[in-house]
């Protein structure tokens, strides 16, 4: 992916012209996880924008799902977008859901994959405590159906996070915030068209979580990807793009 633009407090990737798709990354792994999406959609009439979320840089009091949703809204306003499509994985999906709850007037559509927001242990179990490299490698591999997707680069990033005291404290703060901001009561009131794309073999947010999202959201469509773990857009980028694109066409977005 190309260099990030830096403007004021924002750092972001941007490509293409058209309806804005804003991508919200999770706690683990950054913007490059969405390389497949960032390459595909600008060729099909969309502007793809991936802001770097201030997960480890905000004051600890602003290190929570609600504050990140507000950050996204401020970014949308800063960019001058009227309404947007949000796509989020894991914590990013949760931020997207919370943003949809708070600012429905900004939303054209929402796509979530492996999202937290319903499942209590989604955060706690999957974020490694400090530990040796092998332990962290196993934890990183468990996120995917195919452990080879957890490249040395990904494992190194997780290892660095798990051994950085400030980052670890913030990660645990976010995990607690994700449990506190459970969305079960809010979802039935959220009418924004929502696309749920889920790995059939997701161990972090298991398939029944996707089914619950689909039951609770009044305007949702659920799609499965086989042989796929927690980060569908990384493991099966082409299939992910096709499902998402078909849904966008069907929903006239």
Automatic annotation (TrEMBL):
Gene source species: Flavobacterium qiangtangense
InterPro entries xref list: AB_hydrolase_1 (IPR000073), AB_hydrolase_fold (IPR029058), Carboxylesterase_BioH (IPR050228)
Domain AB hydrolase-1: 20-237
Keyword terms: Hydrolase
One example GO MF annotation: hydrolase activity
Name of this protein: Alpha/beta fold hydrolase
Pfam family of the protein (one): Abhydrolase_1
SUPFAM superfamilies per UniProt: alpha/beta-Hydrolases
């Amino acid at each position: 992916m190309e260099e990030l633009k830096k403007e004021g407090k924002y750092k972001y990737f941007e490509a293409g012209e058209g309806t804005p798709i804003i991508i919200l990354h999770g706690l683990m792994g950054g913007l490059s996880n969405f390389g497949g999406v960032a390459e595909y959609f600008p060729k099909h009439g969309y502007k793809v924008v991936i802001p770097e979320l201030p997960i480890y840089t905000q004051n600890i009091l602003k290190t929570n799902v609600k504050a990140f949703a507000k950050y996204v809204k401020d970014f949308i306003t800063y960019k001058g977008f009227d309404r947007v499509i949000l796509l989020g994985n894991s914590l990013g999906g949760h931020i997207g859901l919370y943003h949809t709850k708070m600012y429905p007037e900004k939303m054209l559509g929402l796509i979530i994959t492996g999202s937290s927001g319903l499942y209590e242990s989604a955060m706690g179990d999957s974020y490694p405590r400090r530990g040796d490299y092998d332990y962290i490698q196993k934890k990183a591999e468990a996120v995917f159906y195919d452990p080879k997707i957890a490249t040395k680069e990904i494992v190194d990033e997780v290892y660095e996070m798990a051994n950085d005291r400030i980052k670890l404290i913030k990660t645990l703060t976010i995990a607690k915030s994700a449990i506190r901001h459970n969305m079960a009561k809010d979802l039935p009131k959220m009418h924004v068209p929502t696309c749920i794309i889920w790995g059939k073999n997701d161990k972090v947010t298991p398939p029944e979580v996707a089914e619950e999202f689909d039951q609770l959201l009044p305007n949702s469509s659920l799609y499965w990807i086989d042989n796929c773990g927690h980060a569908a857009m990384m493991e099966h980028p082409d299939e992910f793009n096709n499902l998402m694109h078909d849904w966008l066409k069907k929903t006239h977005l």
